[in-house]
Design a protein that fits this description.
Blueprint: E1 8-12, H1 21-31, E2 35-38, H2 48-64, E3 69-72, H3 75-80, E4 85-88, H4 95-101, E5 107-112, H5 115-123, E6 128-131, H6 148-159, E7 165-168, H7 176-181, E8 186-189, H8 191-194, H9 199-213
Parallel strand pairs: 1-2, 1-8, 2-3, 3-4, 4-5, 5-6, 6-7, 7-8
The structure holds 4-methyl-5-hydroxyethylthiazole phosphate and magnesium ion.
4-methyl-5-hydroxyethylthiazole phosphate binds near residues 133 and 139.
Enzyme class: transferase
EC number: 2.5.1.3
Pfam families: TMP-TENI (PF02581)
Length: about 220
């Protein structure tokens, strides 16, 4: 995949938002997110048909802004709604099983919380690795201990330069320069956009800062 797609990777589900999730997503798209992941999980998450309906609407929005739409974990849903890819965690289906079921042009991302998992994800053929949590976060209930920037630097050294990586966990505007310098291709964000009173403004500021330190 083109690593620049990871520059500003927005991840969200309905329970991450303080207003209508479709509005939040459209604001983020308008302000220039480069990739989106539908992550409908945790307390109050939509299930079955409700989940699918929201996913379909979000996919349509992403298409209209030409931003790839990925689904977290749920292969069945991703196939049904013809997503552009899937993201799997360490406790989800193995990437080999996912690859066998999905179109060859899909983007498949894997989460890694340490060097061992990151090196394995690269070996397994992940298109990108989501590395974190870098900082502490309250968004993911079962998040591991933050690895810090030093952890990110170690992961980048261990996997080499050839695989795209995106940093995740507690990331705010002020972290951008350090994260890019640590070797990430971009940032993944949930709450700094989804919980903002103006997702548009917050996204725009993040994008401008990222643009300063990339290209
Ligand atoms: N995986 C590791 S940390 C995290 C996930 C899904 C949550 C990131 O959310 P936030 O609000 O950007 O800290
Ligand atoms: Mg998962």
């Amino acid at each position: 995949m083109n690593p620049s797609l990871l520059k500003l990777y927005f991840i969200m589900g309905s329970n991450n938002c303080i207003k209508d999730p479709l509005e939040v997503l459209e604001e983020a798209l308008k302000a220039g997110i480069t990739l989106f992941q539908f992550r409908e999980k945790g307390k109050g998450a939509k299930q079955k048909e409700d989940k699918k309906e929201l996913a379909q609407k979000m996919k349509a929005l992403c298409r209209s802004y030409k931003v790839p739409f990925l689904v977290n974990d749920d292969i069945q849903l991703a196939l049904e709604i013809e997503a552009d890819g899937i993201h799997v965690g360490q406790d989800d289906e193995h990437i080999s099983v996912v690859r066998a079921q999905c179109p060859s042009d899909w983007i498949i991302g894997v989460s890694a919380t340490n060097v061992t998992e990151a090196v394995q994800a690269k070996r397994d053929g992940a298109d990108y690795i989501g590395v974190g949590p870098i900082f502490s976060t309250t968004t993911k209930e079962d998040a591991k201990k933050p690895m810090g920037l030093s952890g990110l630097i170690t992961v980048r050294k261990s996997v080499g330069k050839s695989i795209p990586i995106v940093a995740i966990g507690g990331i705010q505007f002020s972290h951008i320069k350090d994260i890019l310098q640590a070797g990430a291709d971009g940032i993944s964000i949930i709450s700094a956009i989804s919980q903002s009173r103006s997702p548009f403004q917050s996204t725009l500021l993040l994008k401008q800062e990222l643009d300063l330190y990339t290209r």
